[in-house]
Hints:
A: 187 residues
Amino acid sequence: MKNNIKQNDSFNNMDQFIGKLQKEDKRNLLLTRNVQWVMWALAVLYAVFFIIIPFDSNTVYEKIGWFLYVATFVSFGFVFNYLKKEYKRVDYGLPTLKMLENAAKRYKLFQRKLVLAITPILLIDAGMVLLTYKPENPETLLRTIIITQALIIPSVGIGLLIGIAIWRKRQKPLRDAALKMIEELKK
Amino acid sequence: MNNHTKKEQFKQIVDENSERIMRICRYYNPNVEDRKDMYQEILVNVWKSLDKFRGDSKISTWVYRIAINTSLNFTGKAFRQMKLVVDKDVQNMGLLVDDEVQLKQQYESDLETLQTHLNLLSVIEKAMISLMLEGLSMREISDVIGLTESNVRVKIHRIKEKLKEQILEGNTNNSPVK
């Protein structure tokens, strides 16, 4: 937020400064709302595919596949909402020790919320398998599963590696500093 | 909290506490531009945290918490460069020593030496010293930091002892050989 507020004139006019803060709040709110809308819109789009495909023995896999896509984007929406709320919970008005403990927790690499992020990945994985699988050739099931995993696993792996690299550069030093200060305070 | 109420409350907090915030920024930044930068960051964090303020502590304590927490984050970006700056205008400088008059006078007269020793302290120690220089009681410091009052008392006592030892050691090393 700080970078978007021009420094020099900020304190000559408090109303102007507050105006900038409010504008920034609105911008952030709009940005997160837009991302969420995209998730809901994709969920609706796939729900349409799910609904228009007639339900019979030939299309059952496809139907379940579209349904899993809907579930993927709904769960992405919820994960995003959860992360947004967590970000908003950051409170500088807490006692220092508590704030440092929260920061150390927030900047941990492997957290319980990672399980939340895995859910949509598993759903889209299963959805892709079912949508590409041809039930008239049941022998292709194993091949379909392997091809899908060959696409998903490297993508997730690359994403994970990029995430770890970003964490090492940005969050790890903050977590290390927070842990060091906590240790000193508790000594 | 609606936008208008938040704006009014924010303005009131800044009006009543700007001097306080300025002083904290001054302790940490010899450079005027850095001070402004930190002051601005503190105000941004006051704004961000205002919705969560439930009145459990005094407004001044809450503002000190935000200022100290921001300074820890702020200085985290340039951890090694962080300096605690004191000058002769700091009113509570005498609190750094408990009773030794001579040492107290030396602290006040030789700011440069004091400055050097203060900057050898850790980030947390510097934060505590800045609150002490603000004239906060042990109870208030414990509210800001989140430790028990007795714990704060022990820590501050240790910091004072450390400073005293370093200053005395410096004196011994600098005294002429007879």
